[in-house]
Structures are given as structure tokens and as C-alpha cells.
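Quick one, C-alpha cells below. Sequence please?
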């Protein structure tokens, strides 16, 4: 028996930031070392994602996960006991084969991804290393540039505005800690602005202010206002990052902007975004068009890829094959990395590897349904992704990740490098 042999796998039901059930897994290795992780859950999911196994029916709105927890405690446990946690790829492959479906529907993407992450945590614990340091394996790594939400819209705010995330990035900050300092001032200024203009109505799913705006442009204006009010230069110190999440309100040649009561074809959508890029200090746009609109992605990247990060989220669903196809087609220049879209650590890492080898930006990302699980903070650093997207600057399922990065930066001491501007895939 090796020190990294898996001796136990245990699943349990816990609760996420939306008060919905989710899967937690605890993996034990031979010397009694444990690793634990919790599956997150999306709301604006891409159709190509690994799917969560939910019970359906009436209990908890159909979101219960007793079947997924059952997968962990029976099929997955039977499959992994006796395996070596050192071989993450063999473990993930064994679960994929045991599941037997193309989208992890039988055992559940939630069951598989939580187990995969728990194995990784156990492996790092066996080495007595923090996860980020275990993943870095002695290679130099940078603290990620954070993308932080100020207003939350789309599927996370009952479609109060069409655009899902209005975020800021502080590439000119000198450190991760300073980027958070700046964002804290901007978030506060935005809150004050909302209050003073009678718009303060609480927060959306990821902690950004509820977007009580009449148009999408009003939200962009408010964001610029908040950056300036906090004492920063828009575009130079702090830029805007948008997640359009266009699959949520349309498909190729058919985009329905509810707020403006407008219907646009792909070229109309591209014109709208080109106008925003001209008028606002935008550094990054995610899913500018829908997941089925490859031509739209290609056109958008050709027009703006030299001045703007073009991120595929629903478009890539953290799938290495889709990223490879994009490299030939030039359909984006950055990839959002969500572990539960791919469904395992190995598959997500492969998508990140393919993307970064092509010079793409890589952004490790949370989901709108989150928990106290800190895995993504460690992945963003240890995999040297360069960027981290967690949601807003409020609510502890978000702050837990930002705070963990502060601890990591402190632990790095004088050797800590901040990715800053260098994380963006254009000069
Ligand atoms: P989701 O949203 O977790 O609800 O899918 C996050 C995103 O689209 O980036
Ligand atoms: Zn997205």
C-alpha cells in the first residue's frame, strides 16, 4: 500500500449560495490524510457542459442531489478504492468510463467533479503542501488579475438587464492585494451612486448590485462613473470587462434585447458591441454572441481581438477539443476555465494547457452557485492561469476566494508576481 492509495470516498449533501443542495466529497488516503471539495452550479449553462444529476420532482424544486450523492457513495467509491491518488488522470478517466455517457449524465457531473477535486486536495495534503504550491510543482507562478463584478444582470438578476456581468479589472495595480483595494473603492462608489440615484435594490446572485437601469448603456455609464468617483482613470488604471452571456438571450442571427425591446441579427449584435468598445474603456468581453454563433465569434475576434480580450465561456465549455478548433478558426483569444463544465480536474487542465500554449488568455472561473470551497483560488495561482473570475466584492462565497488569494500572495512573500496587464492576450 502506498501513502497515496485511496482508502475511502464519502459523499454528502450540503447547500450552496442559492440555498440549493449540492455535492460534497471527502477522499481519504492510506495514512488517514483527507481531501474535501464541493461542486458549484451554474445558472447560465452552456449546452455542451457536463450535466449535474438532480433528483427532479417536488423536493427543493427538483434540485435535490440524493442520486448524485448515491453515485459517490456507491459507483465512484467502488471504482476508486485502492487507486493511487497520484494518478489524477487515471482517476478521472476511471470515473468517466464508469459513467459511460458523453456528458457525465449517469453518475452526475456534480458527483464526478467534486470527487476529482477532493482527490486533488488529498494528494496535496499528503505532500503537506497548500494546493497552489503542490500544483505549481516548483515552477514560477503569478497571482491572477481579478475580474470583479459590480453590477449583476442577465440570468443572475431575473434578466433585469440583458448583459450578465458588468465587471472591472485593474491591470495597472501593483499586486493582487492592491487590485482588491481598488475594487473595494469602486464597489463602494457604485453602491453610493445606486443609493443617491434611488436605484439601490440589493444584490444579484453573485453579489453585484441589482441592476436597476433602463438601458444596458446606463449600466456602462454608471460603471465609468463609479471608477472615476473612486479616483481612478477609466481605461488606464481600471478597465471594464463584460460577460454578455449572449446564449441566454439569443442564438445566431436572433438576439432579443428585452431591456431595449430590440431584436438583432448577428451583424446588429456586432455593431452594438463595436459601439460600446468605441465609447467605453472595455478590456474584455465574454460570450459576445451565442454559443452556436461561430461566425459571429470569428467576426468579432477579427474586428476587436487586438484591443480586447474575447472570452469563450458557453462557447468552449472548458473543452480542449473546442479550444483547438478555435485556434485554427481564430474565433476567440481567451478561454474561461470552469471545472464543472468539463467535469474533472484533468479535462479542465487540458483545456487550459491547450489555450495557454496558443497564447490565449485563461481565466479560472467560479459559477453563480458557489460555496465556501476555495479550490479555484488555488487553481488560478497553481496553474498560473493569469486571471480569476469569482463574482462580486460581497457575500462570503465570493470573498472567501479573494481572501484566500490574499493569504497565498502573503505566503509567496517577496517572490510574489502579479500577472496584471500581462495576463491579457493582446498588447
Ligand atoms: P453561471 O454564470 O455560473 O450561471 O453559468 C457564470 C458565467 O456565465 O460566467
Ligand atoms: Zn459567462
Amino acid at each position: 500500500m502506498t501513502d497515496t492509495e485511496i482508502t475511502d470516498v464519502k459523499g454528502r449533501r450540503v447547500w450552496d449560495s442559492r440555498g440549493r443542495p449540492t455535492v460534497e466529497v471527502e477522499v481519504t488516503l492510506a495514512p488517514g490524510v483527507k481531501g474535501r471539495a464541493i461542486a458549484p452550479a451554474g445558472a447560465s449553462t452552456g449546452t455542451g457542459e457536463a450535466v449535474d444529476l438532480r433528483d427532479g420532482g417536488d423536493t427543493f424544486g427538483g434540485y435535490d442531489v440524493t442520486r448524485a450523492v448515491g453515485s459517490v457513495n456507491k459507483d465512484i467509491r467502488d471504482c476508486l478504492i485502492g487507486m493511487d491518488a497520484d494518478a489524477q488522470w487515471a482517476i478521472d478517466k476511471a470515473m468517466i468510463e464508469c459513467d459511460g455517457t458523453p456528458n457525465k449524465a449517469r453518475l452526475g457531473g456534480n458527483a464526478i467533479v467534486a470527487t476529482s477535486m477532493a482527490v486533488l486536495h488529498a494528494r496535496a495534503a499528503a505532500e503537506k503542501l497548500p494546493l497552489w504550491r503542490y500544483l505549481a510543482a516548483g515552477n514560477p507562478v503569478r497571482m491572477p488579475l481579478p475580474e470583479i463584478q459590480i453590477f449583476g444582470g442577465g440570468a443572475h438578476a431575473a434578466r433585469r438587464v440583458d448583459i450578465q456581468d458588468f465587471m472591472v479589472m485593474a491591470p495597472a495595480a501593483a499586486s493582487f492585494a492592491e487590485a482588491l483595494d481598488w475594487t473595494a473603492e469602486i464597489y463602494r462608489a457604485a453602491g453610493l451612486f445606486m443609493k443617491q440615484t434611488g436605484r439601490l435594490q440589493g444584490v444579484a446572485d453573485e453579489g453585484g448590485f441589482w441592476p436597476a437601469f433602463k438601458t444596458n448603456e446606463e449600466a456602462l455609464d454608471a460603471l465609468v462613473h463609479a471608477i472615476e468617483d473612486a479616483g481612478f482613470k477609466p481605461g488606464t488604471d481600471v478597465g471594464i470587462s463584460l460577460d454578455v452571456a449572449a446564449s441566454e438571450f439569443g442564438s445566431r442571427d436572433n438576439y432579443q434585447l428585452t431591456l431595449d425591446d430590440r431584436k438583432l441579427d448577428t451583424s446588429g449584435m456586432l455593431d452594438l458591441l463595436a459601439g460600446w468598445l468605441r465609447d467605453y474603456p472595455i478590456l474584455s468581453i465574454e460570450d459576445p454572441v451565442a454559443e452556436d454563433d461561430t461566425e459571429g465569434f470569428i467576426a468579432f475576434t477579427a474586428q476587436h481581438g487586438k484591443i480586447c480580450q474575447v472570452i469563450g465561456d458557453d462557447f468552449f465549455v472548458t473543452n480542449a477539443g473546442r479550444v483547438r478548433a478555435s485556434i485554427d478558426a481564430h474565433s476567440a483569444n481567451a478561454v474561461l476555465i470552469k471545472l464543472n463544465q468539463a467535469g474533472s480536474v484533468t479535462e479542465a487542465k487540458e483545456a487550459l494547457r491547450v489555450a495557454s500554449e496558443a497564447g490565449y488568455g485563461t481565466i479560472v472561473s467560479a459559477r453563480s452557485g458557489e460555496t465556501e470551497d476555495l479550490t479555484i483560488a488555488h487553481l488560478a495561482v497553481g496553474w498560473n492561469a493569469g486571471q480569476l473570475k469569482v463574482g462580486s466584492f460581497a457575500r462570503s462565497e465570493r470573498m472567501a476566494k479573494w481572501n484566500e488569494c490574499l493569504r497565498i500572495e502573503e505566503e509567496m512573500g517577496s517572490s510574489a508576481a502579479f500577472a496584471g496587464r500581462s495576463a491579457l492576450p493582446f498588447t
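The longest helix spans residues 176-196. Residues 156 and 263 are 21 Å apart (CA to CA).
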